[in-house]
Amino acid sequence: MVELNHQQIEADFSKHTISRSPIIKNCFAIVATLTFGKTNDDGKIQYGSALRHRNVEICPHGAFAQYFFSLFHHQNITFSNFSSCCDWYDLYLFSNATGDGSIIYSEQAKIYKQVLRYCGVHSSKSTHINKKNAINMVTNEGVSEDQQRQVRRWDSDRIGGCYLSDLPIDATKVLAGLLLDLVELKKECPESFIWPLNIFGNDLYKDYKERLSFAIAANDKKFKMNQHLEALLPEVAAAMKTGFDSMNAMLNIAQSQNQSTLDAVKKIEAENRTMLADSFLQISNMLR
């Protein structure tokens, strides 16, 4: 099954699955349970999670969809039977080169370094480069310290492991951006090996593509409007503050000038009174 835009659609885009249900549904998260990570010395249950990403080039859901599509439709690996738990206990999400075990760290690190070298990226991190960028992003977006620690998987107590979901929801949403999938990815990566397959040329997919493109455009317009408002509001607030500061300064100057004028009038009045008193005194002396 390949999930396209929050709706499970069979790989052949069967009309029964796509039928008349809404094209956009609730948002799903990929959740990974880790019980023996290299930094987990106490056997605590730890979690990793990811939503669909607005940028299709870094969307984890899209990456998994392409990975599975490649396995079962390009490499023609036999699809496994999931009728009972025991049917998939011995399956590996990321297998080694021979397929009889999970990928080991040295193989993973080698692949990471090859990809980074191909993309011209120079970093002191290889397998942890994504985690480093994620922490920087959630920190810049003001996510709480508790949820930052969950993203880092630095603590996961017994209550969180047994009774709570223990997923950093706010941090996960910040790291996403939401929406998009293969329809948009084709615009960004038209040279991908999967597009020549017949499945992406039939009428059912074309109809899905048209309806999804319309939905994305409508949602993107709202998203951009919100972005503009978020960018504009601080500017408006700053302009209003500058205006109020200028008005206060002008009022203070006027008050200061008025006070100076009042002081000058009082001084002249006092001088006139003194002169008048002196004049009366002189006249009195002359009349004696």
UniProtKB/TrEMBL annotation:
Residues 25-175 form the Ndc10 domain. It holds the Pfam family NDC10_II. One of its GO terms (molecular function) is DNA binding. InterPro entries: Ndc10_dom2_sf, NDC10_II. It comes from the Eukaryota. This is Ndc10 domain-containing protein.
